[in-house]
Q: What sequence folds into this?
């Protein structure tokens, strides 16, 4: 079973082609969101509905879409403080079902602290279910080598290993651009995300996937201050303090 782990309702935009491809092949899959999508941990029916609508357009059924982060009231922006709860939530979701044979997760790249926290959870689960080798990370955004709060979109970090690349066909590109306009509750975030996403999709049109590497968890995703630090969302010291226990358990 293919398990997709996302931090937020809309993170699926980073891996639309893979979701669509696996649905077309008839492969079993499940999607799980690890935060409520709100800063206070309350359930956002609108955010949940927006992602369900987009995913059903890609061919998923509502039964394949799960919101353990909302059920556990895990706040947007603070997932790194609730890793144990997130792991338990996903394990509970998997109880009695088919265990994952491949996990897809946002890359270890320092763009958003919730994305990196989701990556840690994915590594834990991939190790637990012996599917680390088959699992993959996908880039969203990071600020390596850029000043201030500027970021690269869908650019895999070379530190994360060799990147597999798949072409996104033109008919898909136009649809994906349309899907991203339907996250109405997140219009402010998408004011910043949409222009570079559109440029990247229309000029490059590639989906990148990289392997998971447990050793990467022992160091920051890249040299210099990470994007979420520059945006003052979270300090590196805070992130390391809260994630060290699980990372030590994974990398022992």
A:
């Amino acid at each position: 079973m293919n398990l997709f782990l996302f931090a937020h309702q809309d993170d699926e935009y980073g891996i639309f082609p893979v979701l669509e491809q696996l649905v077309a092949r008839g492969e079993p899959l499940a999607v799980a969101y690890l935060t409520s999508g709100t800063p206070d941990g309350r359930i956002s029916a609108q955010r949940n509905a927006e992602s369900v609508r987009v995913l059903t357009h890609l061919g998923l059924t509502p039964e394949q879409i799960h919101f353990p982060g909302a059920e556990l009231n895990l706040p947007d922006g603070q997932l790194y403080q609730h890793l144990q709860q997130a792991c338990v939530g996903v394990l509970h979701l998997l109880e009695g079902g088919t265990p994952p044979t491949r996990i897809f997760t946002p890359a270890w790249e320092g763009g958003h602290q919730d994305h990196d926290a989701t990556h840690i959870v994915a590594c834990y689960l991939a190790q637990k279910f012996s599917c680390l080798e088959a699992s993959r990370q996908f880039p969203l955004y990071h600020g390596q080598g850029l000043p201030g709060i500027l970021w690269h979109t869908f650019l895999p970090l070379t530190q994360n290993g060799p990147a597999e690349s798949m072409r996104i066909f033109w008919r898909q590109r136009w649809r994906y651009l349309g899907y991203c306009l339907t996250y109405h509750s997140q219009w402010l975030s998408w004011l910043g995300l949409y222009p570079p996403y559109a440029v990247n999709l229309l000029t490059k049109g590639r989906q990148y996937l990289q392997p998971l590497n447990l050793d990467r968890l022992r160091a920051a995703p890249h040299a210099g201050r990470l994007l979420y630090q520059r945006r003052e969302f979270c300090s590196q010291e805070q992130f390391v303090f809260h994630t060290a226990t699980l990372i030590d358990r994974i990398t022992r």
Notes: The beta strands are 2-6, 29-33, 65-66, 102-106, 136-138, 141-142, 152-153, 164-167, 206-211. The longest strand covers residues 206-211. Residues 2-251 form a domain with the Rossmann fold fold (CATH 3.40.50.10320). The chain has one domain: 2-251.
